[in-house]
C-alpha cells in the first residue's frame, strides 16, 4: 500500500492502521548499538538492562536500548538474532497495541522482549496464552533471554501448589493459560485470610493469540463452583427421552439450537412419568429435566460436540477443535449428557462466582496482544477493549498461492473431489495438510483416504496429546495430515520435517498444500488454516472446498437461489452466485457471533460492576475489623458474652468468617437470580421496553439488599452458632461452606444464545411494524 | 423525579450527554426559523396569518415543527428520512440483496443505513421541489396571493431546493449525533421537539383570543390530559411465564420478574394516524373535484358532516375508525400463534396452560380483552382536540398539540427518553451503596 493510501486509512480510522513509521525510524539506532553490546560480558549486559529500571520516563531512547539489549540477549540465549520486524512487534506491544504478525515470524520472542520491557518499567506482567502447554513451553524457552535481561520469570499451571503458585505470580513476568489465571482470580475471591491470596494485582497483560483469547473465548465464562448438592441426573427421564422420535414426539429447528416436545410427545412423557401435568406449577421442575434431557438427546452428537473418554464426557471446543478439558455444560446439561451415555454423574455444584475472559482482561490497566489474524477482528478489539491493531510486515514476503473456493452441489461429491485432489497433489510427494470441521469428519475422510490407498496421519481431539509432534512433522515429504481446526496455532510447520532436513526438496515441489474441507464460520479461522502454509516466505498453496449443503450454508443462508447449475459428472459449480451465497453465509455467521458477543458483554458489564462493588466490601471485611464492629452494634450482648468466653481475637475472627460467608452465599444467590432474569428479559421487548434497561431495573435493587441481608444473617449465625476457642462451626449452625470447590469453563451457553435469537427476532419485527 | 434530574446533572458523563443533546436541539431550532434563500419572509408571514392552519399539510407541518410553512432551511424536516427508512425496511422483504445485508448483522446493517441516507437525500430533493413548486404557485397557503418567491427564476428555486435538501441532511446528521452521543433516540427526539415547539404559539393564540381565564383552564386540562396519558401508557398486563430449560438448584425467584408484558395501549399511535389519514380523504376529494363555491349536494354533505371536525358525525366516525384500526393493527402485529410457537421453542410456558395451541388461544383471549379499553382510550385521546376546538372556538386543527397524535407521540418519546436517562443513571450510581 502506498504511503498516501496508508495515511488516508488512518484518517478515516480504518482498522490495522497504527502508525509504524515512528518505530521504523528507531531501527537504525538499534542496529548501531549492536557492536557495542556484543563486547559486553553477560553480567554487563544484565547491568545495562538494570539501568533501564532507573529511567524516569520510558521514551524513545530507552526503547532503542531495550530493543538492542533484547536482540543481544536473544542472540546469546537462544542463538537467534531478532529480526527488525520482531523488534517492531516488540515496540508495538510496548505501546499497548495488538500486533499482527504472520505465522512463524517469531511472535513468542517479540512478546517476551515486550514483557521484559514492561517489567523493566516496574510493572508486573502476565503473558497470557491459550493453553497450559504453550504457557510452560514459552516460559522455559524464553527463560535465558529473561535471565540475561535480569527479569524474573515464572509460569502457572494447574498442578502447582498454592505456594508455588504464589511464587510464580510474584515473578515480574508470569506466563499462564487464560483459564488458569482466571481461576486464580476466582479463587482469590473466596479467601478468608489475607495470606491465602495468590495473585498480587498485575499491571500489564500481554496476550498471545489475541484474537482467540479476546474474541473467540471472550464469551466463555470461567466458573467457580462449590459442591453443595450432589449431582442429580434424572435417569428415568433419560430413559423416557431415549424412546422419543424426531418429528412425532419432538421437533428441532433448522440451525440445530433448539428442540421442543410436540403435544404428542408431552402426553407420552406425562404418561410414562405416571400421569403428571408437566405444565402446572409443580410439574415445571420435571419439565426442566425433560427439556435438558431432550437437548442432550437430540442436539448434542457424540464425536461432534463431545467425546466419551475414560468414562467421562469431554466437550469439544468448537472454535479450536480440541478437547476442552475444563469445560462443562451449564445447568444440568452436563448431567443429562452423562445420563444419556449411561455414565456415572460427575460432581454437580452451585455456581459461586464466575468471570468472563473479557471481564478478566478488563481488570488489567494495560493490555497488549499479538496474533496472526487481528485485522479481521480489529473493530471488535476497538469496541470491546479499546485496542488498536498494528500490522507488522512479514520479514520475507508471503508467496503462498490461495486458489478460489471449489464449490460442489452436495457434500458427497465434495468429499469425492477432495480425495481426488489429495491423490493428484500427493503423487508428486508434496506434503498436504487437510483441515476438517469436526472429529467425525476427520475420521470419515481418513477412512476414505485409506480406502483410496492414501495413508494419512489423523490429528483430532482424540489424540491431542501428540499435537505438537504431529504438526511439527506435517511438512515432511510425502506426508498427508488430516486434522481438525486444532492445527491452527502454536507450533510451526517447517518444510521437510521438524528439523528442516529435507527442506529443499519439499520447497522445490511447491511447499505445503493446505486444503480446507469447508469454510469455517469465520473468515479468520479460514485464514488461520491457510496461514499454516507459506511460513516465512516458504512456497505453499491453499484451497477451500465448499458445498451449498454445508452446515454453514444450511444454518445461516438456507435460501439458495434457484437455477445454479452444476457439472453433471463431478457436481462442481462454477457460478458466481454460489460463491456469493457461501460468502454471505459466512458473513451471517460472523454477524450473529458478534451480536451475541456484544449482547453478552452488555449484560455482563453490569454484573462486573456489581462484583467490583461487592469485592471492595469483601476486601474491607477481610482486611479490617469492620465485621466485628457491625455485629457488635447489632448483637452487643452476645458479643460481650462471647468476648468473655473465647476471647477478643477469636470473636473478631468469627465475626469476619460469618460475614464473609454470608456475603459469598448471597452473591451466589444473586448470580442465580440474574441468570433467571436474563433468561426471560427479552420478552419485555413486547411492551416496547428495552430489555437491557429492564435488566438493570430488576438487578440493581436486588443487589442493594445484599449488604443488609448479609449483616442480618451473620448476626443470626452469631446468635445460634456454637462458638469455641477454635472459632465457629458454621456447618453446625445450618450454614456450610462448600466442602470442595472446583473451577471450570462453561461451554458458551447453549440456552442464552436462543434468547438472543428470540430477542433479535422480536426486535426486528417491532421495528418493521413500527416504522 | 426532580432529584433524578439533579443526580443526572451531577454525573459528569450523563451531564455531558444531556448538554450535548440540548446543544443539538438549539442548533436545530435556530435552523427551523431561518428562511431559505429566495423566500420573502414578510410575504410568508402574511400568508401564514391568512390561512390559520386550515390546511391539508398541517400534519406535515406539525412534524416539521412549523418549519414547513415558514419555508425555512429545515422546511422538509425529517419526513424524508422517516419515509426512506420505511421504504428500505420494506425493500428488505422484496430485494434479496437487502435481505442478505439485513441478516449479516452489524456490517450489513451499516450498509443499509448508508442506503437509507442516500434515499433520504433523493426524497428530500423531491419533497423540497414539491413544496417549493406549490409555494411558488401560491397553493401551499390555500388562497394566499402574496408572492412567496419574488424572484422565481429557475436558478433561485434550484438554490432553495438545494438548501432545503441540505437542511434535511443536516437534521439527519443531528439526529444520529443525538442517538450516538446524547440521550434518547435522535429521530424520535427531533419529532418530539417539533411538536413541542408548537405549544407556546398555540398557547399564546388562546391567551390572546380568549383571555386569561380560558387560558388557565386550558392549561389545567392539558396537564390533566398529559398526566392521564402517561398513566395509561405505563399500564400493562403481565402474563406470568416460566422457562423450564435449565435445571437450577432452587427456583425461588420464579414469577417475580419472568412475565410477558402486554401494554394497555399495545398499538401505540399508529391507529390514530391511520384513522385521521382516512378522514382527510373526503376533504382531499372535495378540493380536487371542484370549486367549493359551486358545490353539488354530496359535496356539501361531505363538507358539513365529515370534513367539519366539530360535527358529531365526524367525531363518531373518527372514534369508530380508531377502535377498528386498533384491533386491526394489534391483530397484524401481535401474532399470537407465532408468539406461542416461539415460547414453545425456547422452553417457555404459561403455568397451567399447555404450550402450542392452548397458549395461543389464551394469549388471544387476554389480548382481545385488554384491547377494548386500550382502543377506547386511544379514541378518547384522539377526539379530545375536537371538543377543545368547539370550546375555544379556534379554527380547525386536528393536530392541536394538547390532544390526539401530538400528545401520544410526545408522551411516548418523553417516557422513553426519561427511562433511558434513568437506566444510565442506575448503571453509574453505585458509589456508597454498601454505606
Amino- and carboxy-terminal Cα gap of chain B: 23 Å
Write down the CATH topology of the largest domain in chain B: Preprotein translocase SecY subunit
Number of helices of chain B: 17
The total count of helices of chain A amounts to 30
What is the largest interface, and how many residues per chain? A-B, 80 and 62 residues
- Rough shape of chain A? globular
Question: What fold name goes in the CATH topology slot of the largest domain in chain A?
Answer: Rossmann fold
Question: Helical proportion of chain B?
Answer: over 70%
Strand segment count of chain B? 4
Assembly form of the protein: heterodimer
What's the structural domain tally of chain B?
A: 2
Query: Any idea what the shape of chain B is?
Result: globular
Q: Which regions of chain A have little confidence, pLDDT < 50, spanning 5+ residues?
A: 747-756, 762-771
CATH domain class of the largest domain in chain A: Alpha Beta
The amount of beta strand of chain A, in percent, is: 5-15%
Low-pLDDT residue intervals, each spanning 5 or more residues of chain B:
249-255, 394-399, 430-435
Given helix and strand content, the structural type of chain A is alpha/beta
Label the CATH architecture of the largest domain in chain B.
Orthogonal Bundle
Strand order of the largest sheet of chain B: 1-3
Any overview of this molecule?
The complex is a heterodimer of chains A (771) and B (435). By secondary structure, chain A is α/β, with parallel strands linked by helices. In chain A, the strands form six sheets. In chain A, strands 16, 17, 18, 19, 20, 21, 22 and 23 form an eight-stranded mixed sheet that branches. Chain A has a seven-stranded parallel sheet with strand order 3-4-2-5-14-1-15, with helices on both faces. A four-stranded mixed sheet of chain A has the order 12-26-6-13. In chain A, helix 9 links the parallel strand 3 and strand 4. In chain A, helix 6 packs across helix 7, helix 14 packs across helix 15 and helix 25 crosses helix 27. Chain A is globular and about 90 Å long. Chain B has two domains: 183 residues, Preprotein translocase SecY subunit; 227 residues, SecY subunit domain (Preprotein translocase SecY subunit), CATH 1.10.3370. Chain B contains 17 helices and four strands. In chain B, the strands form two sheets. A two-stranded antiparallel ribbon of chain B has the order 1-3. Chain B has a two-stranded antiparallel sheet with strand order 2-4. Chains A and B meet through helix 14, helix 24, helix 27, helix 28 and helix 30 of A and helix 6, helix 7, helix 8, strand 2 and strand 3 of B.
